[in-house]
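Field guide to reading this record: the first block holds the primary sequence, the second block holds the structure written as discrete tokens, and the final block holds curator observations. Each block starts with its own label. This record concerns Polyamine-transporting ATPase, catalogued under organism Salinicola rhizosphaerae.

BLOCK 1 — SEQUENCE
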Amino acid sequence: MSSARGTANHVELYPGDTNEPVVTASLAGAGQDVAREAKLDVPPQESLAPTKLKIEGLSKAYGDFQALHPLDLDIREGELLTLLGPSGSGKTTLLQLIAGLVKPSTGKLLMDDIDQTALPANQRDVGVVFQNYALFPHLTVSENVAFPLRMRGEPRAQTLERVKEVLEMVGMGHLGDRFPDALSGGQQQRVALARCMIYRPSLILMDESLSALDRKLRETMQMEIRRLHRETGATIVFVTHDQEEALALSDRICLMNGGRIEQVGRPEEIYEHPESVFAANFIGVSNLFAGKTTDRGVMETVFGSLPLPESIAGGIEGTLVVRPEHIALNGDDRYLEGEVVERVYAGAETRLLIQVAPELVVTARQAAGASMLEIGSRVGLGWAAENARFLTR
Ligand SMILES: Nc1ncnc2c1ncn2[C@@H]1O[C@H](COP(=O)(O)OP(=O)(O)OP(=O)(O)O)[C@@H](O)[C@H]1O
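BLOCK 2 — STRUCTURE
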């Protein structure tokens, strides 16, 4: 038997009460880390890791409303995959389907090649950490973390040892006797994570679990999660609507939009090669120019002709995307001209907003130390043609 316990907002899933330890992820992940270190410039998981979770045609409708359209996704052993997207894009629904908390309308879900679709939540080898950590207030940190093992009737000595181990892992070894209300948000988050990890679930799901923390603490916890991920080799699916968080944390990002997968890829892949205007806009800052290609290797826009990054047939409507860091100010190539209307200082760089036309403001960057352009200056804008992306969706 196994069990799921918690409140409506917080559920923790406890794997079956078998005597078999549920350890599959750490060994597999460790091998992968070695491979990663040996070949630093090669993206992780690309070819080495087997599929941990295979999602096939999975969808969810609530009455007439399609919260999630049928989608396919392979999550690899030992990877940290982020589900990223705006509010309502279906991230939580997908996470709930993976956890077994919600029944799919169509499709199936295989974990380690075994069909899980009909398996109840409490029989899946999955740990869930939700946004509100829901620690038991009347139990100490150690007791909170030990709780799942106690409920399973694990021997006391073994439980104590394991509690010590996971608390050390999350940097909370010295606070085992504290009560939750005497902990900061970040510390509570660590305890929730420890309570999930005490089972060694081979798949950990985290839903917006850092969103209650302030920025500094959030960044520290992101690094902690990366470290834990490296050390344990667990497969983690992390939900966030924060693109910076996704870029900082993920091996791969699954970008979602309107209940569909928009693009899946490594952070730099999505940043450098967005496949849609939505992806270009959602991750990082983009300058977008709508127009139509011509046979002369340029795109005609209402602001003038802009060079195409590659050879593209004429007559195609689309959008040219140029990242701010690729915009050269007063360089040799000048395709547009405008007036600096805003300067936003951000330490290592200054962001410049340049009004090119009443309805077009271009964002550019100037590195610290460069001679600053004052507000009101006229400036010519250009970029290396190959640094732009031409998108048709
Ligand atoms: N039980 C439900 N009944 C009806 N509609 C639902 C239900 N649960 C979710 N939805 C709808 O499905 C869509 C996707 O919701 P979901 O919570 O998965 O989005 P999300 O990307 O996680 O958003 P957020 O970042 O705001 O949590 C939303 O439009 C939501 O209103």
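BLOCK 3 — OBSERVATIONS
The longest strand covers residues 51-62.
The chain has two domains: 3-272, 285-391.
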